[in-house]
């Protein structure tokens, strides 16, 4: 990880830097960045929402993760619930910490920062398990999540406005160590 430091971050204050990282890591258009900005700031107001950032010694944000205790009333839950019900896994929506976003700047990927971010954010939470969604293809993200103990709870999940289907994954906490 060189000298990149992972620690809690005030993501509302760093939202533009975070979205710049996400735009490079995940691919976002200018319009999508503007929409995400509102969504992220709203998410961070949820009770129990927490964020960790990865910063260089110069203070540059090169990765971030945020999440919150899951709530079945949240938009994300309402979309995935029928899919999880279909596979008999909808109980995962209760007592679960949802990872909403995790992104590492491409120049800093492959150094253990993503693993450190998701492990550090979930370690202190009181929920016994974690859920998230990831594009339903083999990717570094899917490989990382599996290595941490996440398993597929539903696949080919379609979010309105997203072109590609997602997989919903869940893992017991604390996440598995290497
Ligand atoms: C997914 C992501 C956050 C991982 O961050 P990272 O800092 O590169 O990951 P790490 O260096 O901690 O690697 C952790 C694990 O991820 C997997 N991984 C990372 N890079 C990989 C690659 N290029 N190919 C395959 N697996 C890879 C491996 O399992 C790795 O574990 P290992 O080092 O024991 O082999 C990062 O690749 C990213 O931002 N990707 C684009 C955005 C994205 O997809 N975000 C997730 C949305 S659901």
Automatic annotation (TrEMBL):
Organism field: Streptomyces ficellus
Keyword Acyltransferase recorded: yes
Keywords assigned: Acyltransferase, Transferase
Annotated ranges, domain N-acetyltransferase: 4-174
Name of the protein: GNAT family N-acetyltransferase
Top-level taxon in the UniProt lineage: Bacteria
Keyword Coiled coil attached: no
E.C. number: 2.3.1.-
GO MF annotation list: acyltransferase activity
Record-linked PROSITE patterns: GNAT
InterPro entries reported in the protein's UniProt record: Acyl_CoA_acyltransferase, GNAT_dom
Pfam families noted in UniProt: Acetyltransf_7
């Amino acid at each position: 990880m060189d000298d990149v430091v992972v620690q809690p971050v005030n993501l509302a204050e760093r939202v533009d830097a975070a979205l710049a990282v996400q735009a490079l890591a995940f691919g976002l258009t200018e319009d999508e960045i503007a929409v995400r900005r509102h969504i992220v700031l709203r998410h961070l107001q949820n009770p129990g929402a927490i964020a960790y950032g990865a910063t260089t010694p110069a203070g540059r944000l090169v990765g971030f993760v945020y999440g919150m205790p899951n709530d079945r009333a949240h938009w994300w839950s309402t979309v995935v619930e029928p899919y999880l019900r279909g596979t008999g896994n909808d109980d995962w929506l209760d007592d679960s910490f949802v990872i909403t976003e995790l992104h590492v700047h491409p120049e800093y990927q492959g150094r253990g920062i993503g693993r450190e971010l998701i492990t550090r954010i979930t370690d202190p939470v009181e929920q016994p398990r974690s859920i998230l969604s990831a594009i339903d293809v083999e990717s570094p993200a899917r490989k990382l999540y599996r290595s941490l103990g996440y398993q597929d709870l539903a696949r080919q999940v379609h979010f309105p406005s997203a072109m590609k289907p997602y997989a919903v994954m869940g893992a017991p906490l604390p996440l598995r160590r290497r």
